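The pair is quoted verbatim below.
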Amino acid sequence: VSQSRYRATKYLATNEASYKKNGIMVLGGSHTWGAGVENEETYPAVLEKVTKENVYNLGQVSFGLDQIVIALLNKIDAFRPKNVLIELHPWVIHRILRTLAGIECSLSFW
């Protein structure tokens, strides 16, 4: 597993202008980044294989919704994606409520 500005090694480049445009930009936390799996096993890599589109994995370990939005705003002009996919699950919502809004809540999973 590699870690760099963008997780998947196939997307490493010296400047963002060299990235192909109109792909799918994927943002999220460790599920998107691919914790515990190889690059080609991440869901963005599988999405690329299924859709035949360029998929850019901008996932980072422990990213919350606030950080995802900041990354989106900072990178959307460089990538000019056709589509954006954002990882969203209860922990992401819980973190933003607890951290920014000061709301104490507990998560329950069944």
Remarks:
- The helical segments are 30-33, 43-51, 65-79, 90-99.
